[in-house]
Model the fold of this input.
Amino acid sequence: MNINLAFLNFRFNTRISNLYMDTLQFAKKVFPDLKNHKLTTLVKKFNLSKNDHRALEDCISTKKLYDLIKKQWQKKIKNRDHVVYWKSKEYCFQLYRV
Done:
């Protein structure tokens, strides 16, 4: 995610400062048993969309993955013992509040 923001900041000579989430980080928390958490791996595993690793397909796949992660996380928080919060350098995220 940081490399994408760096590219956009450089390319458009700006500083993007809005909050964001990295599906990779959250997929690791929600699906810890997977061998890796690459977008293409997750898209195939959960049959989310056809992903040819093109910009538009990546956007569509990422949105579908985000929706899946959010849904899975909401299932986990029904039992409060499973609520987990985690932080990164840029933000503190509580998935069920998104």
In short: The longest strand covers residues 86-87. The two ends are 18 Å apart (CA to CA). The first helix runs from residue 2 to 11. Residues 23-97 form one domain.
